[in-house]
Request: fold
Amino acid sequence: MTLRRARLTAAAVALGFLPVVLFPQSSGARAPAEGQDCSSVTSGTTDILPVTGVNDASEELQVPEAAALARKAGTTPGKGVTVVVVDSGITGLASQAPSTLASGHGLVVGSIIAGPDQPKPAVPVGIAPGARLVDARFYDKPRAEGSDDGLQPPMSGSLEQALNAVAAQRRTTLKGRTIVVIPAEVLPTEGLRKAVGRLVRSGALVIAAAGDRPGGDRAGGDPAADESFLKDYAGAPRPGEDAVFDVWPAGDDGVVSVGVSVPGSLASVLRNSGVDLAAPGTGSVAKGLNGKWCVVTTISSHWAAAQVAGVAALVWSVHKGDSANEIRNRLQGTASGNGGDASPLTGYGVVQPVEALLRDTNGMFAEGHEAEAVPRAKVPRERADLLADARDNAVWWGLGGGGALVILLVLRPVLARRRA
Reply:
C-alpha cells in the first residue's frame, strides 16, 4: 500500500466511513441552501440577503468528506491543478463588488469549481478551492439570455479560437495538471474538431456539457447559424431523441461529456447517448454579478459540467501522478448509477469523489491506463458480481441442510420409540 493510499484510508477511518462509499450521505444538520436565485441576479441587484443553509449539491456529492480526505493526505482540495473556464468570463469572482460582465453564467461556473466561501453565515462554495482558475472568455451572453442586443452568443468559430489559444498556452503558461471545462454547446465544425483534438492530445482533461434544451424558437436569422441550431429540440423530448451528433464539443470522444442526475431533468436537458458522467446540475451556492452569493435553482448540464470539473480538480490534487486519461478512468470507474434504468442522461453514473480518492483503479478498465480514450458509455455499466456463484451455492447448501434437519426432527420420535 502506498503512503498516499495509507493516509487516505486512515483518514476514512477517522472520519467514520468505510473505504467504499456508494451513496451520498447528507449531514442533516442544516437545511438546504436558501437565498437569491442566481439566474435573477444582475450587477444592480441590491438588498440581497446572505445565503443560509448548506451547499446542497456539494453535500449530495460528499464534497465535505472528500475535502477532509484531501487535507488528511496533506493537500488543499484542488491545489496544483489549473482549471480553464471557457465560458462568458469569470471577472470579479474574487471580489464582492459588482462584476462588469454582461452575464453571470461564467461566474456561477467558476464559483462551483473554486469560488470563495460565503463568510457570514459561513457557507462552503467551491468544490476545489485550491485550484487555479484561468479565464478563457469566448462569448458575452448565453443564447437563453438573448442575442439581439449586440452581445455575442456562443459560436463555433469563437470557441475554436479560444481552444486553439488554450492549446498553445499548454506549452508555456498552462503546463502540468490542467482541466478545461466548456459549459456550453455549439455546432460541430471541422476546425472545432481539430481544436478539441489538439487540446486533448496536449494532456489536458477536457470536460463539456452534454446540452440544455432550448426554451423555444429563438428569433434571429439563419436556421443553420449557431444561435438557433438547437431549435428542433425545443419542447418535450421526442421518442428516440439523441443529440450526441449535434452538441459540441461534448460529442467528441476525447471529451468527458456531462449530463444531469436529478430526477425530472428531461424538460431542461437533452437526451444524449454520449454522456460519460453526471452530477446534480443544480443546488450549488455561487457568486452573482452583484458580488454577493446566490443559489443555483435551475437545472442545467452547464452547472453539472462545472460540478464534475470541481470534483476532477479535487481528485487530481491528491492523485498527482495520474495523467488526464487516468483521472478520467478514475472518475468513470468509481461513479455510481442512479439506481434506475439505463439512461442516456447519466452515462457511467454520478461522480463520487470519495470513491475516486480511495479505490484502487488499477485494472478497472480492460484497456488499462495506457488506453488513449475510455469507450463512451451509452448506458451505465453493470458491475461484475463476483460473489454470484458463491451465493447460489450457499442457497442450495442451505436448502439441503435445512431439509435434512426437518427430516431428522420428524423421525426423532419414531427412532426414540424403536430404541425403547
The radius of gyration is 25 Å.
